[in-house]
Amino acid sequence: MLVLLAFIIIFHITSAALLFIATIDNAWWVGDGFFADVWKVCFTVNSTNCTDIDDSFAYYSTMQAVQASMILSTILCCIAFLIFLLQLFRLKQGERFVLTSIIQLMSCLCVMIAASIYTDRRQDIHNHNPEFYTLTAEGTYGYSFILAWVAFAFTFISGLMYLILRKRK
User: Fold this and answer.
1) Domain boundaries, the chain
2) Can you tell me the distance from the alpha carbon of 99 to that of 43, in angstroms, rounded to the nearest whole number?
3) How would CATH label the architecture of 1-167?
4) How far apart are alpha carbons 67 and 10 in whole angstroms?
5) What percent of the chain has pLDDT over 70?
């Protein structure tokens, strides 16, 4: 039982770490001499020159939706972990961790929404912001984008684990 509990805790912490890295790090779209994320676009010709994504940016509301969804997903994942720890000591024997599961599945939904929006709208964002994305046409999705999708899978699996899990002695 202790091994299962340790696995669940490590799995949840890993999910949260993936969400933090995917949200903070700047590698959603990468290529030779540039990297971009949901916060800024950087070029590394001789030195790193970064431009923050602000309201002068076309499709700024789309980027704000991605930013908000990723932040909300990270916050919900952390809240789910705290609620799991509270329920671990407060639930009666045989009850399920339903509240933790619901919050973790909401986190899963938020990261899926963010990654889906970015996947769908990336081309439009790049085409309508030529001053930021002129050199980024030959790029590929970066590791932060991939980590967001991996975090989606991890939060989904942990949400299902919490739903199935019953408290034992």
Assistant:
1) 1-167
2) 44
3) Up-down Bundle (1.20)
4) 26
5) 95
